[in-house]
């Protein structure tokens, strides 16, 4: 493939890169930068492209690898070296690491709160949680479908009140 043909094909396929770039970066300007980097790398490395292979797939691979490389660079920039005698590497920024204990406490509280629901609310709620449809729950419990919906709603409301400590702002 000549340079002119390659350049024409590259220009034609550039539009199809935009949705993928937006999905990766979640930002229009960053997506445009990523597309520009991808096209530049593809053009400078056109000698590595084999005729008869899928140019679009090659461009998507370049874009994905460029995004990963840029993301890793960004993470490295957010890391600084502690110059004390211990030489620890610390991540800067507002990150927090949670251990499994928090999740275990939450799960215990959820199970406890569900266990303390009145059985008339707990049973339809748990059946719905397990994937049963409203109609199936109504038939199984021999109650009207409106009652099933109401009991599930009330159970959710009570659980939300009891577990309000876990509410995210």
TrEMBL record:
Q: Which residues form the RNA polymerase sigma factor 70 region 4 type domain?
A: 108-159
Matching entries from Gene3D superfamilies are given as: 1.10.1740.10, Winged helix-like DNA-binding domain superfamily/Winged helix DNA-binding domain
Which residues belong to the signal peptide in this entry? none
Could you tell me which residue ranges the RNA polymerase sigma-70 region domain spans? 13-73
User: What keywords is this UniProt entry annotated with?
Assistant: Sigma factor, Transcription, Transcription regulation
Q: Which family is annotated?
A: Belongs to the sigma-70 factor family. ECF subfamily.
This chain's protein is named RNA polymerase sigma factor
The organism is Echinicola jeungdonensis
């Amino acid at each position: 493939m000549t340079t002119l043909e390659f350049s024409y094909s590259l220009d034609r396929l550039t539009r199809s890169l935009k949705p993928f770039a937006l999905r990766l970066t979640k930002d229009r300007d960053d997506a445009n930068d990523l597309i520009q980097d991808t096209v530049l790398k593809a053009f400078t490395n056109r000698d590595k492209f084999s005729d008869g292979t899928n140019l679009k797939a090659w461009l998507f691979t370049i874009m994905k690898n460029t995004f990963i490389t840029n993301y890793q660079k960004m993470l490295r920039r957010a890391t600084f070296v502690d110059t004390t005698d211990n030489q620890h590497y610390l991540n800067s920024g507002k990150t927090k690491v949670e251990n499994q204990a928090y999740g275990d406490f939450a799960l215990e509280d959820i199970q406890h709160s569900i266990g303390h629901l009145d059985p008339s609310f707990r049973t339809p709620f748990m059946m719905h949680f397990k994937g049963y449809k409203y109609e199936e729950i109504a038939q199984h419990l021999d109650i009207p479908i409106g009652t099933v919906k109401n009991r599930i709603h009330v159970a959710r409301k009570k659980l939300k009140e009891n577990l309000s400590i876990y509410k995210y702002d």
